[in-house]
Design goal:
- The chain is about 30% helix and about 15% strand.
- It has about 400 residues and is an alpha+beta fold.
- The chain has one domain: DD-peptidase/beta-lactamase superfamily (Beta-lactamase), CATH 3.40.710.10.
- An 8-stranded antiparallel sheet has the order 3-2-13-12-11-10-9-8, sandwiched between helices.
- A hairpin with a 4-residue loop joins strand 9 and strand 10.
- Helix 2 crosses helix 7.
- It is globular and about 55 Å long.
């Protein structure tokens, strides 16, 4: 069978769950927060008014992808200041009961978790507790090349470490008992038994192992469990009321059921209650459409960080051979759209922000099953942006999958 534990740039052993490859409602608190690095530029004149006519175009485009890719259900939020808002849900949240997808449902967000973990790290850097060019070996023992791989290279997907979610024995362990709990040390063990893929900084390769290590760094520097730190020091200050880093398999209601073929048999199964601990700092989190709309701007403008640190975060390097795509520190830029995607068994997500028009796009869906090699979240992103921002199309080409 073939497995696509994806996460970020469509197809990278990521977690969102990222087993794989290489992937907001309330306003955020502003007291004491540094001004954003991405200046609040005037709304671009070329972003269209989201009129009923444009909404009808978007409806048709989303429904076309939904049908072609066989996606059970999807929700979309698109907006820009002064241009209106497009918020819709299509399809079903539960294939058995046929309950409709709804814009208020909680969803697993996979590799978008990386944006929270890296934000936590950067906050601690701003507090002077660590430096981005510190070697990971200063904080975690036993890492191959640990004396040379920096925190910056981990956050930027340039460590050269083997991606644990591409390991054959990991895949078998997960699919044989998807409700089991994995520890960060177990996950690193799947990686460290393999030789490094390349030397630190030499290449870009999306890798969940990097984020597990950064999660351990956050815990060491803060003296607190990662879930607690992110929930209290990242999500809460950002004003996110329905965003959760779970400590187990909990999944607050109401939520959509998620469907995957990343299974022991290769048949499609309901993965709603699978334990996301295998993704941990790389892909375990839960959120909803409203919170992610808010998070898109917070993330892209850096309101939780100092301007200098946000500038470093947004400095991207080419993401392999993906055209018009660069990766910064736990964040990507695809033809001007800044943010992240996520994928884990049963769910995919996309949350991005276009600075020049202050536009926000969030897409959440309840399957990770690829369509002709393409991530369905990317197909929705491309179809939507072709209509509203034809000069800035969110396009992530299909990535190779790992055969098992």
């Amino acid at each position: 069978m073939r497995t696509r534990w994806r996460g970020v740039v469509a197809g990278a052993a990521a977690v969102g769950l990222v087993v794989v490859p290489l992937g907001a409602g309330a306003g955020y608190a502003s007291d004491g927060v540094a001004p954003p690095v991405v200046a609040a530029a005037p709304v671009a004149d070329d972003f269209p008014q989201l009129t009923p006519a444009v909404a009808a175009q978007l409806d048709a485009a989303v429904k076309k992808v939904l049908g072609q890719a066989g996606v059970p259900g999807v929700m979309v939020s698109l907006s820009a200041p002064g241009k209106g808002e497009y918020v819709r849900a299509f399809g079903v949240a539960d294939k058995v009961t046929k309950a409709p997808m709804a814009t208020g449902l909680n969803m697993r967000i996979g590799s978008e978790t990386k944006t929270f973990t890296v934000t936590a790290l950067l906050q601690l850097v701003d507090e002077g507790k660590a430096g981005l060019d510190d070697p990971i070996g200063k904080y975690v023992a036993g890492v191959p090349n640990g004396d040379r791989i920096t925190l910056r290279e981990l956050a930027g997907m340039r460590s050269g470490l083997f991606n644990y979610s591409a390991d054959e024995s990991f895949f078998k362990a997960l699919t044989s008992d998807p409700r089991r709990e994995f520890t960060p040390q177990e996950l690193l063990g799947y990686s460290f038994k393999h030789p490094v893929v390349f030397q630190p900084g030499a290449e870009f390769q999306y890798c969940n192992t990097n984020l597990i290590l950064l999660g351990l760094v956050v815990e060491k520097l803060s003296g607190r469990p990662l879930a607690e730190y992110i929930n209290e020091e990242v999500s809460a200050p950002a004003g996110l009321k329905r965003t959760l880093f779970p400590v187990g398999a909990e999944f607050p209601s109401p939520h959509a059921h998620g469907y995957t073929d990343q299974t022991a048999t290769g048949k499609t199964e309901d993965a709603t209650d699978w334990n996301p601990s295998w993704g941990w700092a790389a892909g375990a989190m839960i959120s909803d459409l409203g919170d992610l709309k808010s998070w898109a701007k917070t993330l892209a403008t850096g309101t939780l960080l100092t301007p200098a640190t946000q500038a470093q975060r947004l400095k991207v390097t080419p993401a392999g051979n993906l055209p018009d795509t660069g990766y910064g520190l736990g964040i990507f830029n695809v033809d001007g759209w800044i943010g992240h995607n996520g994928s884990l068994p049963g769910y995919q997500s996309l949350t991005v922000y276009l600075p020049q028009s202050q536009a926000t796009l969030v897409v959440l869906l309840n399957t990770d099953i690829a369509y002709e090699g393409a991530e369905p979240s990317a197909l929705f992103g491309e179809a939507i942006t072709k209509i509203v921002t034809p000069d800035h199309v969110f396009r992530l080409p299909a990535q190779p999958v790992t055969a098992h």
